[in-house]
Design brief:
2 domains, 13 strands, Trna Endonuclease, Chain: A, domain 1, GMP Synthetase, Chain A, domain 3, 34% helix, alpha+beta, five-stranded mixed β-sheet, 261 residues
Length: 261
């Protein structure tokens, strides 16, 4: 099958082998995808009036991960709202409404029930904590699940321009604690919270069982970077073209999702 979307691939993996890891990866892809929500009428400011379908388990909004799929489903021009999966989940949290994803038009057609929506919203809302522990030494990363490495790669690929690079390594702190750390190099001022949250989500959805995982921010001139470069795994973040500006779309902030009418 050609032109499969990230959700098609994650759904197929979940159907081939239903496990906590594949289910988490599917829901992570849902949160990170742009979705096209079918509306009953054109949006009014921050108020959305989605089309609802009734099922034995309650009402569901209808969303697609491609505009073409929405058009195929409706067979005509129809109003819709384009928003990220995480914004849609935040909007539906505690509303007892699920998501009918790509119904009838894609291999990833799936009903995501209200309890899964609430779980995903809760997972996405967890904020990373802060620590003042000082690193004593670094080592090569070891024992991390492949799902975490691929999750980090996907998260960092979408963080264009927020930092120059990142290093993943094992870490030992002066107080004797050990774990892993992802160090961002030359993060853009003000981007630290977003980067830390992205890493926190990658860890949460990886199925990583316990273990300490931290995030830090260094400048390229910091002497510790040389130590990291000898043992760490490097991630290069994409850099935007000069002068490129990413517009802020109404309803793009999961902390301020649109309102259901």
């Amino acid at each position: 099958m050609t032109n499969r979307t990230a959700l098609d691939i994650a759904h197929a993996a979940m159907m081939a082998k239903d496990s906590p890891t594949t289910r988490m990866r599917f829901h992570e892809r849902l949160a990170d995808s742009e979705l096209f929500l079918l509306l009953a009428r054109e949006p009014s400011g921050e108020n959305l009036d989605p089309v609802l379908i009734e099922t034995e388990t309650g009402p569901y909004v209808i969303a697609f991960d491609r505009q073409e799929r929405l058009a195929e489903f409706t067979g005509a021009t129809a109003p819709y709202a384009a928003l990220s999966g995480r914004v849609l989940v935040a909007m539906l949290k505690q509303q007892q409404i699920g998501i009918a994803l790509n119904p009838e038009v894609a291999p990833s057609a799936w009903l995501i029930p209200p309890n899964a929506i609430d779980w995903l919203a809760e997972t996405l809302s967890v904020e990373p904590g802060e620590t003042s522990a000082r690193a004593e030494s670094f080592s090569a990363p070891a024992g991390l699940p492949a799902s975490l490495l691929s999750g980090l790669d996907a998260k960092l690929a979408s963080a264009a321009g927020l930092a120059k690079s990142a290093w993943l390594a094992g870490v030992r702190y002066k107080d004797g604690q050990q774990g892993h750390i992802l160090v961002f190099v030359d993060a853009r001022p003000g981007a630290e919270a977003a980067l830390a949250k992205a890493v926190n989500e990658a860890v949460a959805f990886s199925g990583m069982d316990g273990g300490k995982f931290d995030v830090a921010f260094f400048h390229a001139s910091d002497p510790l970077i040389a130590a990291l470069s000898r043992v760490g795994l490097r991630f290069d973040l994409p850099q935007p073209e000069a002068g490129a500006i990413k517009p802020v779309r109404p309803g793009s902030d999961p902390e301020k999702p649109p309102n259901l009418r």
